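Re: the request from the purification team.
They wanted to know what the chain is likely to look like in 3D before they choose a buffer screen. I agreed to run a prediction and write the result into the notebook, where they can find it.
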Amino acid sequence: MEAPRPTPSPSPEPQASEGPEPLAMHGCPKSFDASWQERLLVLGSFFGGLICAVVFGMIYAPEHTKLLFAYVSVSFFGLGKFLPLVALTETTFGFYELGLVIWIMDTCTVLLLVYSIEALYSNKSAAHLLGKVQHNAGILLEAFPRIRSFAILGMVLFVLFPVSGTGAIGGAFLGALLGLHRYKIIAAISVGGMIGGMGMAYLAENFGKAIEPYRNNPWIIGLLALGFLLALYGLNRAYKKALARSKQQKAEVEDQA
């Protein structure tokens, strides 16, 4: 009599992963998949021109160029789209010149990211940071699902929104998750940077004209500054609460799976 065959044990179900995996585990996203000729042409021409401009600036206007470097750092690590407000007190550069700086920064950032992402992911520290940005972009899509319905417009609004910082890095990953082609991602971020930078320059200029009669009254200036900071804090808090709520809901769904 033939012995009964043992029934194979069911294979364990795959556990839900904790958020989207970093792009390094999936290779270069299709949105960023460009030939080396295209990468060389874009990065070489754009950043070659930028380097030439910096060299000429250091030769013919070194003080202005150094100040511009300081403004770029302040914008990238702190002020973001609010850089044109600096022209209210320091008039070396005008409102719209600083707004143009915002546009150039956003455009340079997205070009560097789109055409250098494979090299960036070869560095462990950069890969870890970019993986976190990608994860946050996924959380953003869940917190604001209407972005999917208006993909390009949603990206433009995200980039020009002051609370998102300069917005170019997060916007690039947002576009990749939406499945947009790299040309559309670059165009959307560049347009968002232009509108955001020039829009903030316009607001800063008109704000400066409005408070001109009260410049000698420290109480009014102080109250206006306090109101501005409170409004910014409220916007930032609402933005982060929406992201945290979406993150918590996603974690609850994964726990139930």
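For the purification team: Confidence is low (pLDDT under 50) at residues 11-27.
Please add any questions underneath this entry.
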